[in-house]
Design goal:
This protein has about 130 residues and is α+β, with helices and mostly antiparallel strands. It has helices spanning about 5-15, 70-90, and strands at about 25, 40-45, 55-65, 90-95, 95-100, 110, 115-125.
C-alpha cells in the first residue's frame, strides 16, 4: 500500500533535515510532558475530490510546536522559515508531486503550557 500524502510530506521534511531536534508525530499531538521537547505534527487537512485518472489536491497541515525553554520561540521561528524556504526552492518531488505553501506563515498560537504553535498548510498536487 502506498503511504498517504501527509506521511510522504513528513518523510520529505525528515530527509531534508528540517525535523532535527523535533519529535515527529502524525495525525495528533501527544505531549510527552517534557517541557523542553519540541514537536512537528503532520496530518491531512482535506483537499479536492480524488479522481482515479486525474490529479488531485491534497492539503497537509504541519504544526511546529516549541518547547518552553528560553530561546525556543526564536529557534522554532527560524525552523518554520526554513521549512517554507525549502518548499519554495523544491516544489517538485516524485513522491508527493508539486508542493506549495498556502497562506505563508500564520500568527503563532500560545498554549496554556507556554508552547508556541505555528500551523503551516501545504497543498500537494499529485497524480499517481
Amino acid at each position: 500500500m502506498t503511504p498517504p500524502i501527509y506521511q510522504r510530506v513528513s518523510d520529505m521534511l525528515e530527509n531534508a533535515g528540517l525535523t532535527a531536534g523535533y519529535e515527529v508525530q502524525w495525525l495528533i499531538w501527544q505531549d510527552s510532558g517534557d517541557k523542553k521537547a519540541r514537536y512537528i505534527v503532520v496530518r491531512p487537512n482535506g483537499g479536492s475530490p480524488i479522481d482515479r485518472d486525474m490529479a488531485s489536491d491534497y492539503y497537509v497541515m504541519v504544526d511546529v510546536i516549541t518547547g518552553t525553554s528560553p530561546g525556543d520561540y526564536s529557534r522554532s521561528e527560524n525552523d518554520v522559515q526554513a521549512i517554507i524556504d525549502y518548499v519554495q526552492q523544491n516544489p517538485l518531488n516524485p513522491c508527493i508531486g508539486q508542493i506549495t505553501n498556502m497562506g505563508g506563515i500564520p500568527s503563532p498560537v500560545l498554549t496554556t503550557e507556554g508552547r508556541m504553535v505555528w500551523r503551516l498548510q501545504f497543498v500537494c498536487l499529485y497524480s499517481g
